[in-house]
Every structure is written in structure tokens, then in C-alpha cells.
Design a protein that fits this description.
The complex is a heterodimer of chains A (169) and B (100).
Chain A: H1 2-20, H2 24-44, H3 48-73, H4 81-85, H5 93-114, H6 131-140, H7 143-164
Helix pairs in contact in A: 1-2, 2-3
Chain B: H1 4-24, H2 28-53, H3 57-87
Helix pairs in contact in B: 1-2, 2-3
The chains are: A mainly alpha (169), B mainly alpha (100).
């Protein structure tokens, strides 16, 4: 229980800092910390496979891609300094409305979850932790989805190369 | 021991942090990072439900979500690079025209 609250606090705190940082590099590094905490939460959920690919794929590959783009663009710290200097509550109407919507969504979700009776039961003892079982299911029941995913990756790769290409090159 | 509800609450909080990030920030890269936070919140809910039901399906869906997230990040960042070449800016408010 203590472990859960510690990891949850790290995950939420790091995520909040991600959206509060001005420098995108710090945002990316804090998001990696958040993903590390989430990986620990997956371990507490008896999902070691997800915990490992969270670190290897998310923190290792996707975040490095983000970091690479941040460094490649080398953008000035903030484009909209006038906006950023203001407090969140006194910014332009669209941003304030968006923040309000996010808080309203959070209130609704927490309210709905606190009223759900069946969800407060503990976890059973029959956890599927074996990577072999996941792999077998992936290549039998979900074989079609798996193959479609490979096509998706190919399309995304071609699209990324095409989009980021210099014009006339 | 934490229950399913604990994980779902945490998932809801993380999702709303991501939503707030998309709305409040004015930097394309931070907005993409906020979308990653939201995807991770959903992943956590999937794994918690899969654990509660004693099946591996939740973890398999997380696998697919991660693949889609990787594709989304690659294409999104390529678009960000292309936009930055045009306008030297990462502020989404500067991109108000479909062609120029």
C-alpha cells in the first residue's frame, strides 16, 4: 500500500511538473521519471512484461525520439513568453476554459469511481504473469491485430520520413 | 492492499493532468508529451482491469497501445519538424492557415 502511494505520488508529481516546465528538455526528462514510476506500478499489478516494455519502449525509445527532436529544433525556451509569465488563472479565455474542462473531467471521473460499488474489491490471486501466455495469446487470438500493427508501423515510418524530408531534396 | 479503484483513480488523475496539459500549454512538443501521459493513464487502467479479471488481455492491449503511441509520436514529431521549418515557431497559434 505504501509502495502504491509512493509510486503514484511520483507519477502524478512528475506529470504535473511536465506540464508546468517551460523548457521542453526538462519536460521530457520528468516524463521519463513518471514512466519509471508507472513501470513500478505495473510490477505491483503482477505485469512484469508491461513493466519492462514500459521502460524499454517508452522511456528508452519514444522519449529518446522526443529528446532528439527537442535538441534538433533547438527552439527558444518559450515562444509565448507573455502568455507564460501570466498565472494560469489569468491567461486568455481559451486556456482558462481548457483548464476548467480538465478539472471538471477529473471531478466527474473521481465522483463516478467513488460511486462504483464493485470496483472496490481487491485483486484475486489468479494473475496471468507468464510472458509465455501473453506471447501465445498474441500470436493466436490477436494474430490479425498483430499483423495490422506491423503495417501501421511501416506506414508511420514512411510517413515520418516523407514529412520530415526537406523540400526539393 | 490497493484495490482496482485505487488504480482507476490514479489513472483518472493522470488522464486529467494530460488533458490539462493539452489545453493549457502553448508548445507543440509539450502537447505531444501530454498526449503520452494520457495514453499511459489508459494503459494503467487496462492493466488494472486485466489483473482484476485474471486474464492477459489487458497487457496485450497495452502492447498495441504502445505501438500506436510510437507511431503517433514518430508522425507527430515529423509534422512538428516540418512546421518548425516553415515558421520557426512551436506555438500552435501561429499555424492558423492550411497552406501558405
Amino acid at each position: 500500500m505504501l509502495l502504491f502511494y509512493a509510486l503514484a505520488a511520483i507519477a502524478v508529481g512528475a506529470s504535473l511538473l511536465v506540464i508546468a516546465q517551460r523548457n521542453p528538455i526538462y519536460s521530457v526528462l520528468l516524463l521519463i521519471a513518471s514512466f519509471g514510476a508507472l513501470s513500478g506500478l505495473y510490477v505491483t499489478l503482477d505485469a512484469p512484461f508491461v513493466a519492462v516494455i514500459q521502460i524499454v519502449v517508452y522511456a528508452g525509445a519514444i522519449m529518446v525520439l522526443f529528446l532528439f527532436v527537442v535538441m534538433l529544433l533547438n527552439a527558444p525556451q518559450e515562444q509565448t513568453e507573455a502568455d507564460e509569465r501570466l498565472h494560469v488563472l489569468v491567461r486568455s479565455g481559451a486556456m482558462r476554459f481548457g483548464g476548467f474542462l480538465a478539472i471538471a473531467l477529473l471531478t466527474e471521473l473521481v465522483w463516478a469511481l467513488s460511486r462504483t460499488p464493485g470496483a472496490s474489491v481487491g485483486f484475486g490471486t489468479d494473475a496471468t504473469t507468464a510472458v509465455a501466455a501473453i506471447g501465445r495469446s498474441l500470436f493466436t487470438d490477436y494474430a490479425f491485430a498483430f499483423e495490422v500493427t506491423s503495417v501501421l508501423i511501416l506506414v508511420a515510418m514512411v510517413g515520418a520520413v516523407l514529412l520530415a524530408r526537406r523540400e526539393g531534396a | 492492499m490497493p484495490t482496482v479503484n485505487h488504480y482507476l483513480m490514479l489513472s483518472a488523475v493522470l488522464f486529467c493532468v494530460g488533458t490539462a496539459g493539452v489545453f493549457v500549454r502553448r508548445n507543440l512538443i509539450t502537447i505531444l508529451l501530454s498526449i503520452e501521459i494520457m495514453l499511459n493513464a489508459v494503459n494503467l487502467a487496462f492493466v488494472a482491469f486485466g489483473r482484476a479479471m485474471g486474464t492477459a488481455d489487458g497487457q496485450i492491449i497495452v502492447f498495441f497501445v504502445m505501438t500506436v503511441a510510437a507511431a503517433e509520436a514518430a508522425v507527430g514529431l515529423a509534422i512538428v519538424i516540418a512546421l518548425f521549418r516553415h515558421r520557426e515557431s512551436l506555438d500552435p497559434d501561429t499555424f492558423t492557415q492550411l497552406r501558405w
